[in-house]
Design a protein that fits this description.
Helix content is about 40%, strand content about 20%. The chain has 6 helices and 5 strands. The radius of gyration is 17 Å and the shape is globular. The mean pLDDT is about 95.
Length: about 180
């Protein structure tokens, strides 16, 4: 559906179809009660949850929180490609997400959250922003366009290039205080 065509789906058009096919096969073969998927790949997690619901698969999908280095950088095999200077520059992603979360905590609407976090990344040395958005964590609809969902949750998502390495990260936010 549409969730697979935006953000990471736009960058990697057939990636999610392959992921969902493999996950579907594994879940059907193993038949677990619970399957664990990392929150760092939030769009993939949302698509897996949608597939499980749409196909009435008897499994609970549990998100595993993002593991971060002591510096705050989200753990990723791609971090190994960063030089020492690029590693320091990459810390801006987590800092921008923290700014966005703080703005949400203080009542800022999605558009303002996006503006603050995007502004920070656009000024960050060595960072070339691919996208930053505040989305519904279930549907990946852009909350600056559709407004805050009834469940009051949002997800600030970002992808950026640091040197030749493309990194993704996200941070959950609440809009109900």
């Amino acid at each position: 559906g549409p969730i697979a065509t935006v953000y990471e789906g736009e960058t990697r058009p057939i990636h999610f179809a392959g992921v969902l096919q493999v996950v579907h096969k594994v879940l059907n073969l193993v038949r677990p009660d619970v399957a664990f998927f990392g929150q760092k790949d939030a769009q993939q997690l949302a698509l897996i949850r949608t597939m499980v619901a749409d196909l009435d698969m008897p499994v609970r999908i549990q998100a595993v929180p993002i593991k971060r280095e002591e510096s705050g950088l989200a753990l990723s095999s791609r971090n190994a490609y960063l030089s020492e200077d690029e590693y320091i520059e990459a810390l801006a992603l987590n800092q921008a997400l923290a700014l966005g979360k703080d703005a949400a905590r203080h009542g800022a609407p999605p558009k303002e959250i996006c503006g603050r976090a995007t502004g920070y990344l656009n000024k960050a040395p060595g960072v070339k922003l691919d996208y930053l958005s505040v989305v519904d964590p279930e549907t990946f609809e852009d909350l600056t366009e559709v407004g805050v969902p009834d469940h009051g949750r949002g997800l600030i998502i970002t992808a950026a290039w640091v040197g030749s390495t493309r990194l993704i990260d996200n941070r959950e936010v609440r809009f109900d205080g």
